[in-house]
Amino acid sequence: MALDASGIGELIGSKSKEIRAESARLTTLQKRIEGKLVRTWMPDNADAEYKDLFRKASSPWLAFVRDCIAQGLLVDGYSSERVWAEAWQANGMDGRQGAVNREVVGLGKAFGLSLPAEGDGVVMRPLSALRTYASYARPWDEYPEWVLTRIGKQGASFWQSEWLLVDGEAAYWFDGDARTPQHLRVDAHELDFTPVVQLSNTLAMSGDPESSVAAAVPIYQRIVDATFTLQMVQRYGAFPQKWMAGGELARDANGNPLVRSSVDGLIHASGESGETARFGTFDPADLDKVVAALDAHIKHLSAVCQVPPHYLLGAVVNMSAEGIAAAESGYFRNVADRQMALGEGYELWMRTAAAIIGDDTAAQATSSQVHWADVSSRSLGQISDAVLKLSTVGAPLELLFAMVPGWSKTDVLEAAAAVREQRAIAAPPAPQPAIGQ
Questions:
Q1: pLDDT (tens digit, 9 = 90+) per residue, 399-420?
Q2: Which tens digit of pLDDT belongs to each residue from 197-246?
Q3: Do 27 and 54 contact (CB within 8 A), yes or no?
Q4: What gap in Å lies between CA 61 and CA 219, rounded to an integer?
Q5: 383: helix, coil or strand?
Q6: Is the separation of the CB atoms in 69 and 401 below 8 Å?
Q7: Positive or negative, the Cα torsion across 400, 401, 407, 411?
Q8: Beta strands in 225-264 (DSSP E)
């Protein structure tokens, strides 16, 4: 039975603390990923120049790492061609999945919504974990009891916005305070389950899925400190500091020094004190050591997150193909782990879409799998050689062409069909039986 406004308000009110706590946790993590939530020690009398250097010290290194991992996650096919064409591609998921994968890697999870469209179609839309809360009866359930997501901008308070709540009966659209819904509209979906899927970065034994970058937050904070130190040193210590002893500085009529110690300034001794004054310079700071310390922190970040250092430092000098493959081996093992966990969510999302478009066989096919694009740095020559050799033993063309870098599922199917057509044309005609036989 569909809920009314008071029922929705009671449902959300019973989980209000959990909703606020989860939103606060993920929002804090997202700000750290974006480099917006950084604190460091600063003296009470810090001037504007000092504060400006600190503002420039923060860069979104965690976002760089997140994007590097997410770029290795690219779904380019599914076992059911009908579901792939009528659900995935019809909803532009080839493009939408990039934002989904980045959020899954960064925050640990995202959500996928499926609702019936006009006619026999399906609407597939990703839901951000920053705006969505899912309530499960049991931690191991595939589908939640209900899901609340913010679909508008936040108003004067956390609860003021436009909202969508989905349960096993219908989709509920309303606005105002989520605990006292206004202008309620109900769209029944008749699915007997909540058509929202959690897409997870890890399949945790207990608790929420883990982010791939949350553990690296302390290292990121050290990178910010090291970058700030580098800016301070190059601003104040990279040029030789001048000193004078045994004399008095020349001053103007108001008693102020005529020239302060600066990059392009000279120190002058006044009057007779110039005969006894001594001048010199301090040794400049060694910037190489500060840069080396900063690079070490970045390498620590790459090690913890299993991202090759040259992805972050941009330094590939005289590295052989074997050396690059060895440096990237940990990265691809990490990507494979993400694919296994995230793939389960995508497959359940596909089966949900199949149930909505009426493909009962695909909806119940738990053995169906998504196909991940090969983003490894193998050359086209290596792939071509492997394809030719495997074709001689009769390997299916679809599997062989799927190995070609940059080819989508559609490219693979079109190429296989073209090869079969050419072979059929080139094949000699079948012998006809002689007359009278």
A1: 788 777 667 777 888 888 888 8
A2: 999 999 887 788 999 999 999 999 999 999 988 888 887 777 777 777 77
A3: no
A4: 10
A5: helix
A6: no
A7: negative
A8: 242-245
- Helices 61-70 and 287-305 meet at what angle, rounded to 10? 40
State the virtual CA torsion across 409, 194, 362, 387 in degrees, nearest 10. Answer: 30
What's the pLDDT band for 423 if we cut at 50, 70, 90? confident
What DSSP letter does each residue of 38-105 carry, written as one string?
A: ------TT--HHHHHHHHHH---HHHHHHHHHHTT--EEEES-HHHIIIIIGGGTHHHHHHHHHHHHH
In Å, how far from its chain's centre is CA 223? 20
Q: What is the pTM of this model?
A: 0.81
50's tokens = 């000092």
- Single-letter amino acid code for the residue at 48: A
SS3 state of residue 315: coil
For the chain, give every domain's residue range.
Answer: 1-238+285-377, 239-284, 378-427
Q: Where are the alpha helices (DSSP H) in 84-197?
A: 93-107
Token readout for 261 is 């110690």
Residue 339 and residue 344: Cα distance in Å, rounded?
8
| Bridge partners for 188 per DSSP | 170
pLDDT at position 401: 80
Supply the DSSP symbol for 269.
B
Residues 6+ apart with CB under 8 A from 284: 237, 238, 239, 240, 241
**Hey, what are 414's tokens?**
């079109």
With bands split at pLDDT 50, 70 and 90, how would you rate the model's confidence at 4? Answer: very high
Quote the tokens at residue 415.
């190429």
State the Cα–Cα distance between residues 54 and 32, nearest whole angstrom: 16
